[in-house]
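name: query_chain
kind: protein
chains: 1
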Amino acid sequence: MRNVPCGLPPVLVRRRDASKSPARVDAPDRQLSEVRVSIAQNPLSVEVSLPREDVALVTVEGHLDLDTATDLQAHLANQLHHGRRHFLLDLSAVPFMDSSGMNIILRVYQEVRGLPGSVHVIAPTPAVRRVLELTGVSITVPISETAEDALALVDRQQLPEGPRD
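structure:
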C-alpha cells in the first residue's frame, strides 16, 4: 500500500492483478494490490475579495467539477448570507469545468435575481468559455474580460430607469 500525498483523505482502491485470467478472477488465491488515491486529484482554490460592500469578487483556481463544485457553492452561499448581491466569478485559472460548475453558477444567478443582484463571469479560459457558450449560460450570465468591466456592468444595471432623450 502506498500513499499519494495531496492533503485530502485517501480512498482505498483495490486493483485486480492483470496477470490473472478472467476465469480465475473469483479464485480464492487471486492477487490484489492496494493503492491509496486522493478523492480530488485537482483541488480547487477559492479566494473572495470585496471591491464594494455588496459585490464579491470570487477568484477560482483549479478544476471545477463534481468533486470540487461544493467548495465553490459553500463560498458563494457564505457571501449571500453576508448580504452580497453581485458576484464576479474570475474563472481565468479554471482549465476545466463540467455541468456541476455550470449548475453552481446558474444556482447563484437564480438566488440573486430577485434581490436584485447579478452574476458575471470574468476571463474564462477558452475551454470554459466554450462550455458556457455551447450551453447558453453565457446568454444569461454576462462574460467580461476584467473585473473593472464587470463592475461597470453592475453599475449600469443599478441605474434607475428614467425618461430617455
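note: The chain is about 30% helix and 25% strand.
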